[in-house]
Design goal:
This protein is mostly helical. The chain has helices at 3-35, 39-42, 52-71, 78-97, 102-123, 126-149, 156-172, 174-197, 209-224. Helix content is 80%, strand content 0%. The chain starts with a helix and ends with a helix.
Length: 225
């Protein structure tokens, strides 16, 4: 398969999955909002544009397409590809409502883990799976400790998301996971400075760290591909 075909097929497949996930994302986000006790977050006047679903579908296709254009088709690429598609939907939830729906996070974790097990079984890369699983657990413990020390720094939804991100990035390389985590913190810091500089908030203003974790993960996967 040529590079151009990799891009087209990957983009079409990603958009198909993204289109199927958009209504699921809406239902899960609505359910999460209904369960939320954070009245300010749930009732915030956040505009919902007609182009949002189209943007989600395009992003779900563009990112995997670019990865496959650079890396080519391989079962080894499944975990980070599934991670990217899931993070597109979750980033939207975190950006618009500061929420990461539990069912979506658990489904993404199961998908990334299942694809990693499948890839390890087909390629006999069990050592790679073990290392990625340990790194995912390590990221969970780090974010859990931060949340325990001060929930204002890291929400538990971000902690819940960390095993999927840790496994998906460490499947590429433990270095990729380290780079992704550091980049997410840099993006969050820059966003915080912009919020303060534009007088749209203070140092205590909550930021959607899941969004920055998703953006950093996408950039790292593209870089390593």
């Amino acid at each position: 398969m040529t590079a151009g075909a990799d891009l087209v097929v990957g983009a079409v497949a990603g958009m198909a999955v993204g289109a199927a996930m958009v209504p699921v994302t809406r239902r899960q986000l609505a359910a999460a909002l209904a369960r939320s006790e954070d009245v300010v977050t749930a009732d915030a006047d956040i505009p919902s544009a007609n182009w949002h679903p189209a943007a989600l579908v395009l992003a779900s296709g563009l990112l995997p397409g670019l990865v496959l254009l650079r890396a080519g088709w391989s079962v080894i690429a499944l975990p980070p590809l599934l991670l990217l598609i899931g993070l597109v939907q979750l980033a939207y939830c975190d950006l618009t409502r500061f929420l990461l729906p539990k069912m979506m996070v658990h489904a993404l974790t199961a998908g990334v883990a299942g694809s990693a097990i499948l890839a390890a079984a087909l390629t006999d890369h069990w050592h790679r799976l073990a290392g990625a699983a340990l790194c995912g657990a390590g990221l969970f413990l780090v974010l859990f400790a931060i949340n325990l020390a001060n929930p204002a720094w890291i929400a538990f939804g971000d902690v819940r998301l960390s095993p999927a991100v840790g496994l998906g990035l460490a499947w590429i390389s433990p270095v990729a996971l380290f780079q992704g985590f550091m980049l997410a913190n840099v993006l969050a810091a820059v966003a915080g400075l912009v919020v303060i500089a534009t007088q749209r908030g203070t140092r205590k203003t909550a930021l959607p760290f899941g969004l920055f974790l998703a953006a950093a993960s996408a950039l790292i996967v593209l870089y390593w591909s």
